């Protein structure tokens, strides 16, 4: 298992904006993570005292970033910077998530990969129930920008 400090070292998200607490398992094609950050009263994405389900898309995008960081690290390098450019097929089964007891879990997998882009599918669950699923596309920066 990979903890929060190691995750923060892999992604550009720091402090409260780093949404995942631990990596449960991963390989070259997929990753599974867990977090309890959705319950934090000072969550940076909260508004009006609530954390809305649409923010699960950010959880999915950050799962992609963690996976990219782990893959790059395993290859002896550093992940290239990326920019989320599209969300597709997103389905949400709740309206808010801050009131959910227990951890969120995410399963994300690489669907399409090219030199300058990636597309992942993600699913976010709570207590075995599907909260959100969709696809996210990222454009990758130049390899020189990562170093």
TrEMBL record:
Please report a single Pfam family linked to this protein: ApeP-like
**InterPro entries in the record, alphabetically?**
ApeP-like_dehydratase (IPR016776), HotDog_dom_sf (IPR029069)
Question: What Gene3D superfamilies does this protein's entry cite?
Answer: Hotdog Thioesterase
SUPFAM superfamilies, per database record: Thioesterase/thiol ester dehydrase-isomerase
This protein's name: Phosphotransferase
């Amino acid at each position: 298992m990979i903890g929060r400090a190691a995750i923060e070292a892999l992604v550009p998200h720091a402090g409260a904006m780093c949404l995942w607490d631990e990596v449960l398992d991963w390989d070259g094609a997929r990753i599974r993570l867990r977090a309890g950050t959705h319950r934090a009263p000072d969550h940076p994405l909260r508004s009006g005292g609530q954390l809305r389900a649409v923010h699960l898309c950010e959880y999915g995008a950050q799962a992609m970033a963690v996976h990219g960081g782990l893959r790059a690290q395993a290859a002896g390098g550093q992940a290239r910077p990326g920019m989320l450019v599209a969300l597709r097929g997103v389905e949400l089964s709740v309206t808010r998530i801050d009131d959910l007891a227990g951890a969120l879990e995410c399963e994300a997998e690489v669907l399409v990969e090219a030199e300058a882009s990636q597309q992942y599918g993600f699913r976010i669950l709570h207590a075995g129930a599907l909260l959100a699923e969709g696809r996210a596309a990222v454009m990758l920066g130049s390899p020189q920008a990562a170093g």
